[in-house]
# Entry
Amino acid sequence: MDSLQLHQDLPQVDLAPLIDHSLLTSTATPEQVMQWCSDCDRYRFATVCVSPVYVALAREQLQGKSAKVCTVIGFPTGATTTACKLYEAQEAVENGATELDVVINQGWLKSGQHDRLHREVAEICEATGTPVKAILETSVLSPAELKTAADICMDAGAAFLKTSTGWQGGATVDVIRQLREIAKGRVGIKASGGIRTAEQALLLIQAGATRIGTSRGPELVKQLEEV
# Structure
């Protein structure tokens, strides 16, 4: 962990409560979900983030624990219909999800169908009454598109702006800084995708991230303990 020691200006934060411990691979098994939930409880992570099919299992495993259950909606493309996303979101909440990471429709954004995009995010927020993290997929957006998407999602009621699904690139310090400038503290900012070290996580937090999405939560915590 010499690399961490070289960055004396990195923020001194309790990293674990900022982590969404994610397990979103197509090959995830119930046994792995239970392990992720156990890790969440042990390390005091904010949430376990699992695919919709495993929300009920995660709720069962974390019953009475501090960690919450997060799931993804319209994942990973965001190109399902609004009706499908609404059903998926409402079912997830009924099954125990307390946070929803919703992939926006980038095609609507890029083709100027901003009203449709706004309406979709707003309908999910209103129908579920549950905090929504709008996944922007920042790697495929221009700076102007990023600002437009962020403004639309904030106005529609999103509680967080999230960088990535992890399927098309990941979080960068520059993008987090841009989102911080756009958000101006009005919503949270979730950095997600490709975060493999505690140093990366701390740099992203320093840039403005308020939540970290990673499948390597225990590794990151252990890295900090070794410094």
